[in-house]
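Try this one yourself first.
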């Protein structure tokens, strides 16, 4: 005869299943190229058979997908959810970006990092005749952009080494050339609370950025300005960015 399972025991078992599934998803999130079942098992410290059952259940919901070579990657359902989060973030951030645009008179953008790249997912363009118009969706080197460095500053130096690697391909003649120099720059970003670069990604363009760490994820907010205007406006932009960071973080929650 079947026995009723006590509510506390059932609840505990359900929480354990969710926790293990979350561990698998987090492991895959750190390896977008995919992982084998054995690699996942080692990462989350679970038996391979347990991981196999979890992966099968997640695959049925589209949260992961299995590749023909035995690898497992995050699935389309999660990617759709991530897209929704970006949409929500843009909707929440837009009033703050407009305010930043009005205060500085310059183009502002919000970005998200992925590996060695950072991408602007939304921008508000300056109305000045000489202005910067970034391409939304364009991948840029995380190490040469102020927005990328602001987000790197939220990570440890060891994590940065893994993400960036030893070779920094130059985007312009001004691009930081070595990992050691990049780590020194990131250390300054941590101390100052903001990041700045001058012509390291696009010649003639300077950017100042901050990172926001929220319950919706980590994003950058940057101001893009023609380099000749930077010196006169740097203090105003820096202050406005730091105020924007505080307001946005308070609005969304950390």
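Now uncover the answer:
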């Amino acid at each position: 005869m079947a026995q009723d399972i006590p509510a506390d025991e059932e609840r505990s078992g359900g929480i354990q299943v969710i926790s293990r599934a979350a561990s698998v998803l987090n492991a895959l999130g750190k390896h977008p190229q995919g992982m084998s079942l054995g690699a996942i098992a080692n990462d989350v410290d679970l038996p391979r058979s347990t991981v196999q059952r979890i992966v099968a259940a997640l695959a049925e919901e589209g949260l992961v997908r299995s590749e023909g070579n035995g690898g497992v990657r995050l699935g389309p359902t999660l990617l759709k959810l991530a897209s929704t989060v970006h949409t929500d973030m843009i909707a929440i951030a837009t009033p703050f970006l407009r305010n930043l645009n009005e205060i500085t008179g310059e183009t502002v953008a919000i970005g998200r990092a992925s590996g060695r790249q950072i991408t602007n997912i939304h921008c508000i363009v300056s109305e000045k005749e000489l202005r910067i118009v970034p391409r939304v969706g364009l991948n840029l080197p995380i190490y040469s952009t102020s927005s990328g460095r602001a987000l790197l500053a939220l990570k440890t130096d060891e994590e940065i080494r893994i993400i960036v690697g030893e070779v920094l391909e130059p985007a312009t003649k001004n691009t930081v050339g070595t990992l050691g120099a990049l780590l020194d720059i990131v250390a300054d970003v941590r101390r100052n609370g903001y990041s700045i670069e001058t012509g390291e990604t696009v010649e003639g363009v300077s950017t100042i950025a901050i990172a926001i760490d929220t319950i919706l994820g980590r994003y950058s907010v940057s101001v893009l300005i023609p380099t000749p205007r930077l010196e006169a406006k740097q203090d105003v932009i820096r202050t406005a960015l730091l105020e924007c960071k505080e307001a946005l973080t308070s609005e969304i929650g950390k």
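Discussion: The helical segments are 7-29, 37-44, 48-60, 76-104, 146-152, 157-164, 179-192, 227-252. The longest helix spans residues 76-104.
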